Amino acid sequence: MQVLHRSEHTLKKALISKNPVLVSQYDKLDAGERRLMSEAFQPSSNLFGPIIVHSQSDWINSHPEVPQDFEQFFTDSHRKAPGPEKHIIYIQSIGSLGNNKVISEEYIKWLKGYCEAFFYGLTVKFLEPVSISETKCSFRVNEHTQNLQIHAGHILAFLKKKKPEDAFCIVGITMIDLYPRDSWNFVFGQASLTDGVGIFSFARYGKDFYSSRYEGKVKKHQQTSSSDYSIFDNYYSPEITSILLWRSCKTLSHEIGHIFGLRHCQWLACLMQGSNHLEESDRRPLNLCPICLRKLQCAIGFNIIDRYKALLRWIDDESNGSSGAAPVNSSDPANLKKPVEAFKDWREWLIKCIAILEK
Q: Which family does the similarity line name (predicted)?
């Protein structure tokens, strides 16, 4: 295990810059916002900790990247930002997201609400769900796991054609596993920053995907030709547990963050850290570090306290006192509670940040 300590000087330069224009912009931030961001420089801070590398297989070791500070983000000529004519994040569900229609619809509402809070100030819209057959994508049965997979590149091409004129981006979400090319085992997601499209799978976030009990395995006698999409009819969808919702929100916000131009974070523990595997992804926090937070604020223009309060409301609203410990399995919308137990620690983190902002 290795703790990557960045010096106060390094973090200040990454956040504030030495460019007089950007320093002036930072100085014009609300006093509470500057107070919160300065937590990045406090060694004893319990809000923004250092990156901890657990093994050589972790992303930061196996994928060397040039760190992106705020100045590099701000001056990136290829970075796309929302504007008056392109200000909507569209989300397209592909295939069933739950084991019945009610669960699928509620899960979509929860994700929509989370994205609206996370990317505070932008509109988030869900397009009408589409079936796998409507995408005309290639698919296969993974020879290792025996589960169905759809071709990520073909889905991106489908989404690019569907992208509305007023879209900042369009992202697809699915409970079907993905593969980018025949030689690859799988991929969690894939995006084209140039086209503003992405596709992300939550299939491997179910509690039993890697177990021998996984119900999504395809039997030999079920396997059909690559043009017969009937194999997806009533295909297995994992239960929408609190941990699956937590992982889904984390992946969706991380990947949309890339479309805004945020690269993998190498400064502090942050949502925008890269991850090579599920264990590493689970270690990432839900929050952005101050450097990445300033990048997103620059792109969208929100007040940080308003954004944090919106995220807190998302956790508290519509949960109706549910602990979220049990799977979401009701077919009655009135009894369907948002499973927010996995967000408990983050809720406390948000409250601490709001207190600093309001001090």
A: Belongs to the peptidase M54 family.
Domains by residue range for the chain, with CATH: 1-27+51-80+262-302 (no CATH), 88-246 (3.40.390)
- Digits of tens for pLDDT over the chain (359 positions)? 888 889 999 999 999 999 999 999 999 999 999 999 999 988 788 899 998 888 887 878 888 889 999 999 999 999 989 999 999 999 999 998 876 778 888 999 999 999 999 999 999 999 999 999 999 999 998 888 888 999 999 999 999 999 999 999 999 999 999 999 988 888 888 888 889 999 999 988 887 777 767 777 787 655 555 678 888 887 888 888 899 999 999 999 999 999 999 999 999 999 999 888 888 888 899 999 999 999 999 999 999 999 999 999 999 986 443 333 344 454 555 567 899 999 999 999 999 999 999 98
Catalytic residue among 39, 116, 255, 280: 255
- Residue pair 258/193 in contact (Cβ under 8 Å)? The answer is yes
Cα–Cα distance for residue pair 206/209, rounded to 1 Å? 6
Is 255 in the active site?
A: yes
